[in-house]
């Protein structure tokens, strides 16, 4: 019984969450951090950062041919972003759920995009779409020594 229970237990994951320049400018950094903290996820890394085009071309490599890509580069370099690593059970999928849909008008109220944004080109936040892209994005945006392992005293109150 113990073995089958631990076999179905979700893996602990890490995800890369980024508050885009509009989210920073509009004073939503605290609000977005608060939602991940209050859910019970654990902060692994955090910094305010001025992204450059080279980094964004790597981050958004799959979108380079899209007509909106030049505008996306301009948007994402228009001011500082807030880079974060959040850790916990199923956090990649749950993080995307907390962000909402890519298009804010398809995002349910209660999600970050659904509560604070209106158009896709100013949708406030980024979240990794898979465990593999999370690991890739964490490496891209952070040096190894910026991502910390630490003991969260709430762990036993968040997980059974
Ligand atoms: P995601 O951020 O929800 O993963 P992606 O399809 O990966 O969505 O697109 C990355 C980002 O590119 C979006 O969050 C948004 O900022 C921007 N974007 C996507 N589609 C459009 C568009 O049609 N017009 C303008 N910007 C777009
Ligand atoms: Mg994406």
TrEMBL record:
Chain ranges of the Nucleoside diphosphate kinase-like domain = 12-149
Family of this protein: Belongs to the NDK family.
Q: Which domain of life is it from?
A: Eukaryota
For this protein, what is the EC number? 2.7.4.6
Gene Ontology terms: biological process: CTP biosynthetic process; GTP biosynthetic process; UTP biosynthetic process
Top-level EC class, please? transferase
The protein here is known as: Nucleoside diphosphate kinase
List residues binding ATP: 20, 68, 96, 102, 113, 123
Q: What cofactor does this protein call for?
A: Mg(2+)
Indicate the span of the full protein covered.
30 to 189 of 189
Enzymatic reactions? a 2'-deoxyribonucleoside 5'-diphosphate + ATP = a 2'-deoxyribonucleoside 5'-triphosphate + ADP
Q: Where is the catalytic site?
A: 126 (pros-phosphohistidine intermediate)
GO molecular-function terms, A-Z: ATP binding; nucleoside diphosphate kinase activity
Question: What is the native source organism of this protein?
Answer: Chrysochromulina tobinii
């Amino acid at each position: 019984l113990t073995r089958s229970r631990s076999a179905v237990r979700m893996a602990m994951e890490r995800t890369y969450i980024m508050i885009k320049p509009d989210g920073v400018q509009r004073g939503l950094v605290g609000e977005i951090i608060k939602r991940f903290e209050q859910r019970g996820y654990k902060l692994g890394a955090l910094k305010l950062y001025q992204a450059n085009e080279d980094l964004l071309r790597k981050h958004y490599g799959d979108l380079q041919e899209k007509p909106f890509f030049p505008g996306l580069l301009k948007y994402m370099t228009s001011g500082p972003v807030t880079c974060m690593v959040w850790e916990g059970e199923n956090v990649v999928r749950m993080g995307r759920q907390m962000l909402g849909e890519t298009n804010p008008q398809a995002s349910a109220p209660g999600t970050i995009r659904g509560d604070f944004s209106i158009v896709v080109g100013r949708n406030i936040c980024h979240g990794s779409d898979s465990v593999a892209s999370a690991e890739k994005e964490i490496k891209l945006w952070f040096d190894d020594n910026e991502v910390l392992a630490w003991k969260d005293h709430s762990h036993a109150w968040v997980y059974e």
